[in-house]
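Quick log. Single chain, no ligands specified.
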Amino acid sequence: MYPPRVPKPAASVVVPTSNRADYLEVALASVAAQDADFDYEVLVIDDGSRDRTAAVIEAAGVRSLRNEEARGPNAARNSGVELAAADLIALIDDDVYAPPGWLRALVEGAERHPEAGAFGGPIRARLEGPAPRGCGRERPPITSLDLGPADTETELVWSANMALRRSAFETVGPFDEQFSTGGDEEDWLRRFRSAGGRVIYLAGAGLDHRRAGDDVRLRSLMRSAYRRGRNMRAYDRLRGSDPALARELRVLAGCGWHTVRRACPQGLVAGAHSAGRVVEAMRPR
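-> predicted structure:
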């Protein structure tokens, strides 16, 4: 369905989603509540959902495109960029909460840095529910990003909170649709930088990356981390930058030592990620 477009928007917010209606509902409500004195649009790409995602999209009154069969997040991003009306396209995941000043900070940051073609902002891990205890030394168990309190040029940002100019997309080409949760945005950004593009971290354009309910239980976090580990190792192999198996095993041993020495359940999440990398490293080429 395609509700009427707003006048030429200052930004288009693209949200790929698949079978996570509860998360999407929160994300869309937060994007609708932005403190913005400019026009913006929201585009949801429904990647083959079989839950109540369609009802959530209809209730939000946003533009959308549905894939009958799942094609993956990068295919959804490509479709969203093609449909977007704005020259600045913000990509977020369906499991985020964007505080009211997020989009304004993103648009103002892009205006402040006309030399850049891609942007990202802080991603804060937000665990809502019975999350495993941590010792404070480990990294958050889900994707996060913090490069400090000031704007800075960087190599990589993450697709949970990323924006690009249409001109950059047209120059570099689409996101590679063979990637899922490993190397998906990283591949595009590396190609962009190789073409001379600049990526800017916008310190004021932060949002929360959520996990709620059963998704914050240790088993669920470990399962997700294991899949990410396998996918990231597969991406490293495609790039020809995969570390030796001995190094992967040392990292896995270090995760185990951290978990035992610190009595840190969240160390098991890091260990699951490392185990995924080891298993992928042992897979025949």
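The longest helix spans residues 218-239.
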